[in-house]
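Sample A.
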Amino acid sequence: MIEAKHIGLSINGKTLLNDVNLSVQPGTFTAIAGPNGAGKSSLLKILSHELTHYKGEVRINDVVASSYSVAQLSAVRAVLPQHSHVQFPFTVKQIVEMGRQHFKTTSKNNDALLEEVMELTGVVDWANRNYLTLSGGEQQRVQLTRVLAQVWDQKTFPRYVLLDEPTSSLDIAQQQLIFSLVKKACERNIGVLAVVHDLNQAVQFADHLYFMRNGAVVAQGESKTVFTKPIIEETFCCRVNVYHDPCTNCPYIVPERTTLSTLKTASV
């Protein structure tokens, strides 16, 4: 389990996170939702150990995160940032292979794992293509493949995937595919934590949901339990209606039309 206790973060006198507690269980998909500036990405950077100066404690599989070496950390967690910048004409396979750079295994076993993950994500036919020629959505799938390849080995200990807005700028079909792949990863004793903006997709796929606002957790719990009109309106300062799909009983929201003056007041 990844467990964050009493996390606080201030930069240049501004409080970004205030006494945040969060946990990610192996085999489950946990999502974080909230308005811009809520502290979601900052929290993810702390959990991934990209940010190291903060209050509180982060433990991964009951070990303090700061005690891991870079190689040890790469074996237990993989991170997909909001944007992955590649400036050289690597092939798709070379990009995916970057997720395996800290692992020593036979060439045969490594190639078999890479092919398995690339088949799963549907990029195996692109193996020799120039990554820079792919569309934004295709590049995102390749980057997710790289991340999954990093933690795809069968291990006795849980591993984790941390995703920061993995479906931003993707069309609806690509979004559904990405989240379906994430759920598939959970079947391998992998815990997934994702920062998301689409609430309807969050409740559709995530097992556990955290709502954040102004650097603090507003509510958290089983996704369908906390996906309520009062919690969503408190989190986003926006009036919504919550309905339920008649076939699946999965809740979904439809925002009410909001005037410009109301939006300005809510953003203060």
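Sample B.
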Amino acid sequence: MTGPLSGIRVLDLSRVLAGPWATQTLGDLGADVIKIEKPGGGDDTRAWGPPFFESVETPGETMAAYYMSANRNKRSVAIDMATADGQALIRQLAAECDIVVENFKVGGLAKYGLDYAGLSAVNPRIIYCSITGFGQSGPYSDRPGYDFLVQGLGGMMSVTGERDDLPGGGPQKTGIATADLFTGLYGVIGVLAALHHRDKTGEGQHIDMSLLDTQVAVMGNQALGYLISGTEPTRMGNAHISIVPYQTFATRDGHMILAIGNDGQFARFCTAVGREDLSGDERYRTNPARVTNRDSLIPLLEEIMLTRTTDEWVELLEANTVPGGPINGMKRVFENEQVAARNMSKNIIRGNGEAMPTVASPMQFSKTKVGYSRPPPKLGEHTREVLDEILKLGPSEIARLKAVLGE
């Protein structure tokens, strides 16, 4: 493995999305990630499909796209942690690791001696990141947490969806698991900060990540707007609470986004469409005025936007330096010249020479490159390799542990 975290080893006791997203990011950065999975089944997301990647080289072998999306650059080790021997193996691995990431319920690993107290006893330098729905403290700490539930509790669904007074109005979750993904990324930030602290002091620590904490935090301007004003933000569909015009519009052949963020852009837009009267109107000259008078301005813009196709609008807006663009499905996303130029779609080559698709990391380094050396692993693919390489277990000892390893 290469990358800025080359030489760092991660013990991944997580499954599904928030934890695996964090450990995949660490793996992309060059860390050696050892994913512990339950023999016989592994991470739940291995079965979350369709769609499934189907191996051409090995007919009948499949892997869920969901699992693949969060588990590249890892080695899979099958260990039954419900057994004493399995727990002993995991403790031995923790002694050789820098970081542990887990997303069991609060206290779920204590009975195995694999919680922070147990693993820091064998490795005081360990950085141990726990990801739960509601954190290690508070009245909800014992509850299971799910992204959908947390989007509702944390306010995301109160501002996502069409206005209640319009057709289709009502709360909506986001199209991706934002609470999970943001928590995974914040978990990485916490781990990197803890690594820096350990470099200075030699001491490890416990990082307590909560889906709900993260969801509240990423409400950003909506949350702070409420704290300042006391006014509840509402669902506005694709419109923006503080910027006008900043929303979707129907065009002659579909829909597109107009994202005008300042008065100069609005003036250029009006000039481009021959409606300088609008930018000269005191009701619309400034953004605060446009926000106040959106109900009269938006219908005028809706009429204008229907006069051209989406592609015609994109060309006109680009020519006049006005932000706007199409609403792409995944096909057009990966056909987009900018996405292609940034190499956001890659293949990772398996040991048998077969190419597995992956979406690239968005991190672009000038020196320490993101790596794509390990495709998402088959369940237990690296069990013997890791036990031999890291724990120096011989064939006889591994043979004794066959039941624990699911072999």
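B remarks: Residues 9-217+343-400 form a domain with the Rossmann fold fold (CATH 3.40.50.10540). The mean pLDDT is 96.
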